[in-house]
Amino acid sequence: xxxxxxxxxxxGTIADVFAVTVPDGMHPLxxxxxxxxxxxxxxxxxxxxxxxxxxxxLIPFWAKDPKIGVRMINARAETIATKxxxxxxxxxxxxxxxxxxxxxxxxxxxxKQPYHIRRIDRLPFAMAxxxxxxxxxxxxxxxVSCTIVTTEPNAxxxxxxxxxPVILPPETWxxxxxxxxxxxxxxxATASPxxxxxxxxxRRIGNVxxxxxxxxxxxxxxxxx
Length: 225
Prior knowledge:
- It is built from three helices and 13 strands; from the N terminus they run βαββββαβββββββαβ.
- By secondary structure, the protein is mainly beta.
């Protein structure tokens, strides 16, 4: 499961890495939680990359209540092609979730210890995502929401949790985003662990109200694979 993540990179770095125009006002996010507005990348009709804002927690187009999105923050790679909530988005609405780290917890001495899992070079990366458009009753303005695709963990993340996001290598981004491609199952691989580390951070990050550099306190050496 991926239920919290970060975007601490500058807008300029994100623009360079994703080859996309970043909207004004983008700032570091240290503790992104479900239902938060999050940036993601989609393919425009002309094939260019666009950055949109999404609500984290996918609300299928057929939903009667947006609260269903709280249960749809993650989609298992093994079932997204068949599960009713995700199969339409998997065919037609794939996107890149912009991140530079994600949190997972493991129990140590009876206490849940959070870890920030990130690239050793600290560069942003793309988590595989799906999105949907849902129209609230009585309005023509759609609510655009997203989910993060998860898979089996690699040798690093498996020390902490039994799932991890699908991390897409840059050379696969265009194929994942391709609006004309109905199936991208072969891209749903587990990331190799060599370029990654998991750093223990202060437990205050578990509070969804904690947001800012003061909440992101590293308290020990990193784990590596």
